[in-house]
């Protein structure tokens, strides 16, 4: 302590020194703290600058280097390239009457995921509006049901709106104006343009024409095209369908493919399909279907088929099956068994109508003449088999005409043996048996003819009488067309021409022809077979007098072919194919008619023959086409001499 200073002064001096030290300490500490803050601020500023530079670089990259790719990606997310369906060609009959054509319709659809989200968002933002998913779909269901009475109910629509799926079709085949009115009230409903196939005749020609429908994969509208599902609609689909166009459309979101109306931009225009003109006459087709169906019911047959050919050209004027469908009714046409065109797909053993082969061969080869007589026993041994006639008789003198008019199995085999197996086999081929006719319909069967090198000792005891081989009703009629056309067989056909979109007519390729026998031999056989419809005393009647038509000479042949019993796998004594093939008129042929009944009830009068049905069909043909009367009735000729 300094001497002379008071103690109080010394105390103040010491306190001042302590304050001065403390202040210096605080200033030093403050200086150190400010330096730390400045360091942190500098770091943050540097970090922000780096972030901003990186963001800027990214922005430059996006705007300059990736702009095109990102734009394209965004465009892809909201647009789709879809097919624009081509107008499907019509199917016409020989007179230009439309059998099938397309009309423009609309299909309504909705993206349920999109609708749920949109309505939920709206309800959340506007809770007082009272508008939500439930109220919206209820209103839409009520409006659509009211616009389409009898098509869909309000409850059916509500069920569709509440499906767990993200997408649903609401209703198909709506008139464009009705669809427009609905979408005007509820723009969230999507509209697809489609075509609907119309069949004015319902079931007329259904087994020939078949049907066209939509192949759809619920969400993929690029697959929504009208394509053939059966018959000519399927087999000639390439001609009828045309070439679809392509267009870009905006869709409601990236994955539901629901097109926003008014956003379509064509890339490639669709090319319409071609029309097909058939050889079919729709009035005659209707009548043949009606008469066949009625007769099958009367005879209690399992089924039946019939065909009418032009005797000169082989064109099919009508081709009928007793079972068919209503092409305008999806439920009906789903019964594909009834769409089966058995007239071309289902061969059968024809029985005695096949005797025309022996008759033609024997006359053409000069083995016999219509008036020549031949002793015919009641039975004949062929290898280990005994062949009998349908009625009991001893040896009798038959004329050649009588052998075929009375359908003698024994007499036919005696003539076939004179003709010989090789010539007979060649005739089967020339008549078109065992091969497809080239008719132009899908699923055609060639039938069955045993190869010549596989014939057994008994084969030639079966074939001439129509057993051991099979044919379709079209093939059967084709044999008689050759006889009607002076021995020239013309392949039958059902399509006459294609009509391109520009109106040009493209005829089908000319049918193949085969000269089966000479023109004179064919004329002789044709005249000889008139006796089948002859009605005489005692044994002088043919087997088909009920086929006769007043004012016209009729040439033809009845047939009764045994069917194989499905239980015993042997020929049945009660199941038969009943057939008739006839020429109208015999003296100036215009039409050939072939008929087959599948296992009719043999105990009924109608079950014994198809001749009455031929008579009815021939009467319609004569009236419908104003066929001139024959010069006179068929002459009565002797069939059995003793």
Automatic annotation (TrEMBL):
<dbReference type="Pfam" id="PF03717">
    <property type="entry name" value="PBP_dimer"/>
</dbReference>
<keyword id="KW-0472">Membrane</keyword>
<feature type="domain" description="Penicillin-binding protein dimerisation">
    <location>
        <begin position="84"/>
        <end position="255"/>
    </location>
</feature>
<feature type="compositionally biased region" description="Low complexity">
    <location>
        <begin position="1"/>
        <end position="27"/>
    </location>
</feature>
<protein>
    <submittedName>
        <fullName>Cell division protein FtsI (Penicillin-binding protein 3)</fullName>
    </submittedName>
</protein>
<keyword id="KW-0812">Transmembrane</keyword>
<dbReference type="GO" id="GO:0005886">
    <property type="term" value="C:plasma membrane"/>
</dbReference>
<dbReference type="InterPro" id="IPR001460">
    <property type="entry name" value="PCN-bd_Tpept"/>
</dbReference>
<keyword id="KW-0131">Cell cycle</keyword>
<dbReference type="Pfam" id="PF00905">
    <property type="entry name" value="Transpeptidase"/>
</dbReference>
<dbReference type="GO" id="GO:0051301">
    <property type="term" value="P:cell division"/>
</dbReference>
<feature type="domain" description="Penicillin-binding protein transpeptidase">
    <location>
        <begin position="305"/>
        <end position="617"/>
    </location>
</feature>
<keyword id="KW-1133">Transmembrane helix</keyword>
<keyword id="KW-0132">Cell division</keyword>
<dbReference type="GO" id="GO:0008658">
    <property type="term" value="F:penicillin binding"/>
</dbReference>
<dbReference type="InterPro" id="IPR005311">
    <property type="entry name" value="PBP_dimer"/>
</dbReference>
<dbReference type="InterPro" id="IPR050515">
    <property type="entry name" value="Beta-lactam/transpept"/>
</dbReference>
<dbReference type="InterPro" id="IPR012338">
    <property type="entry name" value="Beta-lactam/transpept-like"/>
</dbReference>
<dbReference type="GO" id="GO:0071555">
    <property type="term" value="P:cell wall organization"/>
</dbReference>
<dbReference type="InterPro" id="IPR036138">
    <property type="entry name" value="PBP_dimer_sf"/>
</dbReference>
<feature type="region of interest" description="Disordered">
    <location>
        <begin position="1"/>
        <end position="36"/>
    </location>
</feature>
<comment type="similarity">
    <text>Belongs to the transpeptidase family.</text>
</comment>
<feature type="transmembrane region" description="Helical">
    <location>
        <begin position="46"/>
        <end position="65"/>
    </location>
</feature>
